Amino acid sequence: METFTLTRKDMAIMLLSMKGRATRAPLTVLQEAWKKNHSAGMEYGTSLSAFLSTHLPPILEKMIKSNHVEGFSLQDIVSLGNQIEYTNVSITSMQNWVKRDFKEFLGAPKIGKKYSVDQAAMLFIIDDLKNCLDFESLRKLFEIAFQQPDDESDDLLGPVDLYAAYSMLFEEMDANNDQLLDVQGHGAGKHNYDALTESTIRQKADQYVHHLNHLNPQQKKAVRNLLFIAMVSVQTAYFHSLARRYMNATLFLHSLDEDHRNG
């Protein structure tokens, strides 16, 4: 069956909606994301058969029925995370992050035995940033961004806001939706691709932090750099996913092709 796929921007808007900070309800976000991926089916009247062949994890079924969720189990967060494009996260990994690797930043479940929207966003951020950074580096970044883990009021940018910021900035920089950041100025005979790419991403992050009036210049620079790292990490996630697909195809088809030749 087909997987219900969400972009990071889709997920960010859905998380903001759950916090009452978006004009669209979670169900509307899901509907728009699905419609975007099935425009042909909508046009030719085959949307029902297309949706019936789409796998829905229990957490999405719950959102469709109630349009409201009071916290998430860790399994819910894993299921949601795996609906995000180019993401492959396991329950074991998230259990380790919660209980050991990022315990001081995630804390205990905040809604009874369930995790909050911000805690879910934090787990999605960890999953993205680990594409580029080791856990020790991540913890040092989080100490700067979130300062006292038990006090949300001193966050330079809350987890949901941070996740939304880099998710939306990445999509703005991938206007043609080819999963590659768009960089102007590349051309034949030019060898400064790396500098152009770095400059373009940094400028985009600078534009965002310019409007964060609650931060001082040093804090703005820290958030700018974190957004830069996050956007590069999202780009890296695409290449990791592409490499995994080719590895799986190679392993699966290698013995199959040999059996076919020998048969």
From TrEMBL:
Pfam families: DUF1836. It comes from the Bacteria. PANTHER family: DUF1836 DOMAIN-CONTAINING PROTEIN, HYPOTHETICAL CYTOSOLIC PROTEIN. This is DUF1836 domain-containing protein. It comes from Paenibacillus piri.
